[in-house]
Amino acid sequence: MIRVMIVDDQRPTRMGLALMVAKDPTLHVVAQAVNGQEALDKLATSAENQQPLPDVILMDVRMPVMDGLDATNRIKKLHPEISILILTTYDEDDYAFTALGAGASGFLLKDVKTADLNRAIHAVHAGDAILTPRITAEVIRRGVPKTRASDESKAREKFAQLGKRELEVASLVSQGLTNAEIAEHLQLQPDSVKKTVSRILAKIKVRDRINIAVLWYQANMTNQ
């Protein structure tokens, strides 16, 4: 059972998200909060009472008292094991960049369909990063500084350490595919893909999937 917390200042939105999450019997809403500060307070109380913390938080962006981006930054510092999905009605790239920089695992618009939302919750809980397709490429572009030939060469040297299957997986990660999507594409088990991604992270010495994508883009700048 994946424990979910919903943080949004609009009660109808919280209710709607809770109903969507309830459609999946493996997901359970364990807490709700009206702003980032209340979310932090509830997490602190749970930790103090040695109660289980949520595995995934659905976080609104614009809220009074403390917004979702500030809350995400603070929560990830205190509880790095919690995955955070940013939900917003504003399809603006800067929210995605700021949220990812704060430690969020994903960025979705609030008009997301129930099945897609629940798949995203499972995905970030499994260690994936989730972005709307249009934002994925822009996140990568903004994450890559002006590339010099030496930088491109260093990036290629990192990928040269990978085996054939690892390179295939790295390429698909750079396209924004989740572990489940990669598994289907390569006809592998999701657990196998997860282990492969972990090996890639260790070998090329980056901390998350977004950085795999950034490095892949950097290594292939001359092919863009």
Describe this structure in words.
This protein is of the alpha/beta class and 224 residues long. Helices cover 56% and strands 13% of the residues. It is built from eleven helices and six strands. The chain has helices at 11-22, 36-48, 68-78, 93-102, 114-125, 133-143, 149-159, 164-174, 179-186, 190-204, 209-219; strands spanning 2-7, 27-33, 56-60, 83-88, 106-109, 130-131. It has a six-stranded parallel beta sheet, with helices on both faces. β1 (2-7), α1 (11-22) and β2 (27-33) form a beta-alpha-beta unit. α8 (164-174) crosses α10, α8 packs across α11 (209-219) and α9 crosses α10. The mean pLDDT is 86. It holds the Pfam family GerE. It comes from Bifidobacterium polysaccharolyticum. This is Response regulator transcription factor. Keywords: DNA-binding, Phosphoprotein, Transcription, Transcription regulation.
Strand content: 5-15%
SS field, number of helical segments: 11
Helix content bin: 55-70%
Helix and strand string, N-terminal first? Answer: EHEHEHEHEHEHHHHHH
- Using only C-alpha atoms, the radius of gyration works out to 18 Å
Structural class: alpha/beta
The residue ranges in which pLDDT falls below 50 over 5 or more consecutive positions are none
The 3D shape can be described as globular
Q: State the distance separating the first and last CA atoms.
A: 42 Å
Estimate the mean pLDDT confidence: 86
Largest sheet descriptor: 6 strands, parallel
Domain HTH luxR-type: 155-220
Modified residues (4-aspartylphosphate): 60
Organism: Bifidobacterium polysaccharolyticum
Keywords: DNA-binding, Phosphoprotein, Transcription, Transcription regulation
